[in-house]
Amino acid sequence: MKKADFIVIAVVLVIAGVLVFFLYGINSDSGAYVRVEVDGKVVDTLDLNKDATLDIETENGGTNTLVIKDGKAKVTEANCPDGICANHKEINKNGESIICLPHKLVVTVVNENSGGDDVDAVA
Fold this sequence. Notes:
Layout: H1 3-25, E1 33-38, E2 41-47, E3 52-57, E4 63-69, E5 72-78, H2 84-87, E6 97-100, E7 105-110
């Protein structure tokens, strides 16, 4: 390998390191609340610092169980056909979401207990 090859490899590694830092380092702040939306409407907002269990029923007969424990939220049970939401990892960082498309359920970690933001989750 030539000297130029080592320089290119070093530059690529530095760029990758900077990207990893910004992707994981900047968004490392934990959110304070979990906003639960069904069909684009906020149905509940829960504090991540308080352990809780919420059974969510949707208009199309869907049921999901959301568990908040140790500052993290996770969908533990769902009667949807694919069950992807129940297999999703726990969330606790601002902006992370668990989504169940068959039940039109969106669980998002937010920093403030607000009624909503300008983002349209249905579109």
